[in-house]
Design goal:
219 residues, 5-stranded antiparallel beta sheet, 4 helices, single chain, DNA-binding, hypothetical protein yedk fold, mainly beta
Amino acid sequence: MCGRFTIAPLVDLFDRFHVPERVSLTLPRYNVAPSQEVPVVIRDGNNRVALMQWGLVPSWTKDLATARKPINARAETLAERPTFRDSLRYHRCLVPATGFYEWKKEGAARVPYYLRLRSGDLFAIAGLFDTWRHPFGGELRTFTIITTAPNRTVSPYHDRMPAILRQHDEERWLEAGPLDPATLAGILAPCPDDVLEVYRVSPRVNSPSADGPDLVTKV
DNA sequence: CCAGACGTTGTT
DNA sequence: GTCTGG
DNA sequence: CCAGACGTTGTT
DNA sequence: GTCTGG
């Protein structure tokens, strides 16, 4: 699955995703955890960067306090899920990332590994977002990360991985409007085996309050 | 009809 | 909002 | 995802 | 054990 990621871009996020309007960002981040606010790319006329909280709250949610706020959506089933279906049609987004963590079960222990592109490049994870309106005003914008089957590089570590978009699919993903199931399956298929690399990192990443470049150091 | 759920992962 | 279960 | 809390009353 | 918070 994908429950932590990094966004520590070496290149300009706005240029990489063709966003004309600059907004202020608090980057880099080496340990983004659920519920935290990070930049995502949406299309609203032009591409735009919006800050959203990780954990989807559908627009029809009645009680924010008891809402589930799923951080992941399975690619294989999201078209059927009431929680994701509307977002899938009209609120797709890119989640910029430079890597993500997976915890591997090794006996009783859960050992963190870091996965990133061999190129070290910034990439886009397929995401969905929605806007929830407070009863007395104000908006909460949230997103979820789509997961897919692991490729051969990831499968020794985990049985799910984030849906990393091929660069030529990024613009199509942002376009509003329904996608037919075959197109969807193609876009959200696991990325090629040879683009990712994996190595073990310190369990200091376990604590959501930890941050800093040392978290992605090989151990 | 109304009430209640609406999610994923991992673990058992 | 929309679907499922009773 | 993991870490940390998990409670009430009354007093400050 | 299970829920909440980050």
